[in-house]
Design brief:
By secondary structure, this protein is of the alpha+beta class. The protein has a single domain, classed as HIT family, subunit A (2-Layer Sandwich), CATH 3.30.428. It contains three helices and five strands; from the N terminus they run αβββαββα. The chain has a five-stranded antiparallel sheet with strand order 1-2-3-5-4, covered by helices on one side. The two termini are about 30 Å apart.
């Protein structure tokens, strides 16, 4: 737990939340500032600032909860679809430094954009650049 983390305070019960799912390792609740009706956050109960800080079993528990909740969230608000995403780090828009997945219901004609729109203009990468990046990522 982190003393100055709003999500850790929710886990501890110090800040109320509209909890929709809870296990020993994960809690999910409605976003207090939703982008759409039913916007849900899924977080690990233990503090992890970035995705890479999660232990493998905890990452699996978070994603298992996302896969369970996404259709339930859509059904609850009669959504046509959903965006699921994580902002990993401040430059990516992460406002709370505690890993959290967003399940955002989407509706036909809602004016929203696909996940591809979050990064702005697409880079024009050569085959050599793509090969270098792939080599740097691969083990």
């Amino acid at each position: 737990m982190s003393d100055d983390c709003v999500f850790c305070s929710i886990v501890a019960g110090d800040i109320p939340a509209r909890t929709v799912h809870e296990t020993d390792d994960v809690i999910a609740f409605l976003d207090a500032n939703p982008l759409a009706p039913g916007h849900t956050l899924v977080i690990p109960k233990s503090h992890a600032p970035r995705v890479g800080d999660l232990e493998a079993d905890l990452a699996s528990a978070v994603f298992e909860t996302v896969t369970t909740l996404t259709p339930r969230v859509q059904d609850a608000v009669d959504a046509d679809a959903a965006n699921v995403g994580l902002n990993d780090g401040e430059a990516a828009g992460q406002e709370v430094p505690h890993v959290h997945a967003h399940v955002i219901p989407r509706f036909a004609g809602d004016g929203g954009a696909p996940i591809h729109a979050v990064a702005g203009e697409r880079p024009d990468l050569s085959d050599d650049e793509l090969d270098e990046i792939a080599a740097a990522i691969a083990p």
